[in-house]
Amino acid sequence: MLLVEKLVVKxxxxxxxxxxxxxxxxxxxxxxVGSNGxxxxxxxxxxxxxxxxSTGRILFGGKDIGSAPCASRARLGIGYSPEGRQVFPSxxxxxxxxxxxxxxxxxxxxxxxxWIMDTFPLLKERSEQPANQLSGGExxxxxxxxxxxxxxxLLLLDEPFLGLAPVWIGRVSDxxxxxxxRGTTILMTEQMARPALKLCSRAYVMRxxxxxxxxxxxxxxxxALAEEYL
Length: 230
What we know:
- The chain contains nine helices and ten strands.
- By secondary structure, the protein is an alpha/beta fold.
- The protein has a single domain, classed as 3-Layer(aba) Sandwich (Rossmann fold), CATH 3.40.50.300.
- Helix 6 (136-147) packs parallel to helix 7.
- The longest helix has 16 residues, at 166-181.
- The chain is globular and about 45 Å long.
């Protein structure tokens, strides 16, 4: 579904990604693991179109999207949940989720939101509550729901466990499993490798803007866990 080939991303004179290549098959959940500054978020941001690429290709469903704007990538079926949640604090839970359905017909948006509310009961319970009154874990569920409000083919999750207490890591993990059961393809970045490894089938270990190792979870578990403490 997603193929990244020899991708280079630069910020001024600094190279954030150096000839990075990854692939994510339909229905897979793939992890990018590494310490802060490894290049994980730069890769996610390049895929969604938030940062320009210097060289290389990004193919989604066989189509080169490397020069497409963010909105076009979203319409093709890519959803994105950013690092740090970034919910709209003054909007209610329902309004936050609705904000992600821009471009959908009213009927389709209502259908998607009904599925989300049924799948994640917490959102129904908190539907009229402003997002800034929620805990960090609750806000992460809202951010996930907003990212999947279009029911995307590919979901990009940037550090979904960042700053969460263990109980909320478990609940967010359960929410991700619900999306997996629906068949959503997921590319996830995470520094906290331990909970993320339980959700993924394959992983790429990143360091200094490069892929240092890749393989099944069994093959790279020890190295991925080592990265958690670097």
